[in-house]
Predict the structure of Ribosome-interacting GTPase 1.
Amino acid sequence: MATTVDKIKQIEDEMAKTQKNKATSFHLGQLKAKLSKLKKELLTPTSSGGGGGAGFDVARTGVASVGFIGFPSVGKSTLMSRLTGQHSEAAAYEFTTLTTVPGQIIYNGAKIQILDLPGIIQGAKDGKGRGRQVIAVAKTCHLIFIVLDVNKPLTDKAVIENELEGFGIRVNKSPPNIKITKKDKGGISITTTQPLTHIEPDEIKAVLNEYRMANCDVAIRCDATVDDLIDVIEAKSRSYIPVVYALNKIDAISIEELDLLYRIPNACPISSEHGWNVDELMEQMWEKLKLCRVYTKPKGKMPDYTAPVVLRSTACTVEDFCNAIHKTIVDQFKVAIVYGKSVKHQPQRVGLSHQLADEDVLTIIKK
Ligand SMILES: Nc1nc2c(ncn2[C@@H]2O[C@H](COP(=O)(O)OP(=O)(O)OP(=O)(O)O)[C@@H](O)[C@H]2O)c(=O)[nH]1
Ligand SMILES: [K+]
Ligand SMILES: [Mg+2]
């Protein structure tokens, strides 16, 4: 019997043979959807070698986590030890690190968990090495550092991104602006706000049919591709994660070469061994994590700037703030007085649903 990997190969071959035009768009849409379903099958934890595994699941601490992904011996563990002081074995041979090694840093008052991971190799997402377990951990992180060795060709970057993509991780992207609403009958109706240059209506229909969504309204508000459409259908298995490329070992290259590296978007050239430019790496980390520091001001006193309550920007209402302090506070809550970027008037009285911004100052008034 053909394995899932064989079936994937067959479909990829067929897609490569098929010319893309109006006449083939339905067929290609069908193939894309089939391919995506097979890949998902490959990644379900029940199949051998998938899922977590000993040494990979670690207790999560802090407000956010950053995972290190890279080929063996690019310097992930050296970086880990440099950033956190937590020793992670580093050596000149490949696969020195075999499990998840957790560490922690405190940056701008926020506790951030750092996860040093084993190296991955090409084909990791398809089960080569322990790549799947490693990428599965990365998928749960709020930020990924893709660590690259500047002495090796930067084509490695594309290979790693491809591995992550194949596992449902979307790098430095936001979810496509496509809304699918299921109906009982009436077939598929598509509305768009701009011309679609990558996808034919037939292709959209083929994909939806393949997913047994023959009756639905599709509102597309971007120049979507078939992959975008599938990402929206498969939203549950997709993770949109910001990435910083840590270009390591710059101590081994010339200034001219370094200059070129600075042109790569979202990249930060560093030397883990010498600690060069890790400050910039931390700044980029902070920017990407989009954390929200909120300072408490006891009534009639100065704000406490030493210990912010740090919230994730996806959960930073006054209610989230209260819950971060103690779960009983919400019950006693009357109103909050806020100074800062989230309010028009300084100060302003707000309720539990108010969205806070980074560096707001807040006083809770109890009933
Ligand atoms: N020149 C130079 N060498 C470095 C730097 N960082 C790490 N190395 C060396 O690169 C080798 C591999 O470092 P590790 O930190 O073990 O790399 P790793 O990515 O954790 O490797 P695995 O755990 O095997 O995947 C070691 O010999 C380090 O001393 C750096 O900034 N410059
Ligand atoms: K190593
Ligand atoms: Mg290591």
About this structure: Residues 72-73, 91, 93-94, 96 surround potassium ion (ligand 2) (CB under 6 Å). Residues 29 and 177 are 19 Å apart (CA to CA). The domain at 291-366 is CATH 3.10.20.30 (Ubiquitin-like (UB roll)). The longest strand covers residues 101-107.
